[in-house]
Specification:
This protein is an alpha+beta fold. The protein has 3 helices and 6 strands, in the order ααββαββββ.
């Protein structure tokens, strides 16, 4: 899978909540370094897969609105807004975070990520 296909699957097809898709596109040795409003975290592939399950269980719908992308053969930079709807109010999306992430691509999989997010 090339960088463009990864973005389309991950962000345009609700891939952030799709454990099976993430398991396919994330390298076995995947690491995410994440700076957020609550501090710095390092997440493994399993941590991200578990987070996808949590997002799926806690929100009715999820939408990643991609604002900017930069592609190379080995790097992928994405700036997006993550919106969700609750089970109680499924017709209204609200923004939970504004995010920019740099993905390192290796052999068609995401090997490493550095993400910065801030809540809305």
């Amino acid at each position: 899978m090339n960088s463009r296909e990864i973005v389309e699957k991950l962000y345009n097809e609700d891939g952030l909540r799709n454990r099976d898709l993430l398991n396919t596109i994330l390298h076995q040795d995947f690491v995410l370094n994440w700076d957020s409003s609550v501090g710095f975290r390092t997440m493994s592939k399993n941590d991200v897969l578990d987070m996808a399950d949590e997002l799926k269980a806690n929100y009715q719908d999820s939408k990643a609105s991609v604002i900017d992308t930069i592609f190379t053969d080995e790097k992928l930079v994405v700036r997006y807004i993550h919106q969700v709807s609750t089970i109680e109010n499924p017709n209204e999306l609200f923004t939970i975070a504004k995010i920019i992430v740099i993905w390192d691509i290796e052999n068609g999989q995401i090997k490493k990520g550095y993400q910065i997010s801030k809540p809305e």
